[in-house]
Amino acid sequence: MSQYDILDQRFKALINGSAQLEQLWTGGRWTEGPVYVPAARHVVWSDIPNDRILRYDEVTGAAGVFESPVGYHNGHTLDFEGRIIACEHGRRRLSRLDHDGRWRPLAEHFEGKRLNSPNDVVVKSDGSIWFTDPTYGIDSDYEGFAAPSEINASNVYRIDPADGAVTLVAGNRVKPNGLAFSPDESVLYVSDTGGTHVPGLPPTITAYSVNPDGRSLGEGRVFATCEVGLFDGFRVDRHGNIFASSGDSVRVYAPDGTLIGRILVPEVVSNLCFGGPKRNRLYITATTSLYAIYVNSGPAEPANRLR
Question: What's the sign of the alpha-carbon dihedral 182, 241, 97, 52?
Fold first, then answer.
């Protein structure tokens, strides 16, 4: 049985027919938020309900606990100094792992109210940090600590690199989840998993135009909808294609929104990232496991980004 579902000839240029999907580790409850750390040649990812982050060493193939307890981490990314930025459900904040090994808060409040439970995060080329803030970490005690929302909304925010100010950039989503910029940063893509709370709401990725100021968003348009499961985390490659999680695969969309193919995965996919020395290894978190497969592509990112 093929591990690919080729729906468009454009997909063939992105896959390596001889590459196999590898299960690198299993044993989680809900794995999420992978980030590749080039300086260490390892991948760090979350096992949210078990309140731990794990590490896979791509040189030795060893995998194990990186830190626990850690505050129910979800999504991760890197800043330009190679420091991990984390979305913490438990402490309802964004934090950064500094070079001294300490987690330091970056954002905890918006307009004096506690954030819900930051979910996913991306760093723009100007150093600003953009993140989503649905309520999954406060909906129950499973992925954080049950609590009422102080903001009473699930939004997308931006942290200013100069003064750390948190501003609202998108307030019209039900449960914003994954996010990523297009290669030229003219578009911010945001997935919405609001179907978990609003029956019948279709899973979508919305494309927002980034305004000329680079700090705010224009109108959004539906870029893609998912027929199986939900769009959770996703990444944009250097050609502008979107590699997105779903209920049965990594779905790959061309920049025009066409679903061009799928990488089949035997578990529900939550998130993914590009890694390896050539950034051509796709690391995939899926329910209980970490998978990887080599592809003929790599991440869309400025030359000075280390992610």
Answer: positive
Confidence of residue 302 (pLDDT cuts 50, 70, 90): low
At 303, is the pLDDT very low, low, confident or very high (cuts 50, 70, 90)? very low
Distances from the Cα of 62 to the Cα of 18, 41, 129, 288, 291, angstroms:
24, 12, 31, 17, 14
- The rounded distance, in Å, linking the Cα atoms of 202 and 153 is 19
- In this prediction, residues 268-289 reach a mean pLDDT of 98
CA 252 → CA 21, 22, 34, 196, 208, distances in Å?
Answer: 16, 19, 18, 23, 19
Q: Output the CA–CA distances (angstroms, integers) from residue 149 to 113, 137, 178, 197, 222, in the order listed.
A: 9, 10, 20, 14, 27
Average pLDDT rounded to a whole number, residues 290-301: 94
- 282 strand-pairing partners: 274, 293
pLDDT at residue 301, rounded to an integer? 73
d(CA 58, CA 66): 14
**Beta-carbon neighbour count of residue 77 at 10 Å?**
23
Are 283 and 292 in contact by the 8 Å Cβ rule? The answer is yes
Query: How far apart are alpha carbons 295 and 274 in whole angstroms?
Result: 9
CA atoms within a 13 Å half-sphere pointing along the CA-CB vector of 152: 0
Cα separation of 98 and 111, whole Å?
26
Is the pTM here over 0.85, yes or no?
yes
29/142 Cα distance (integer angstroms): 10
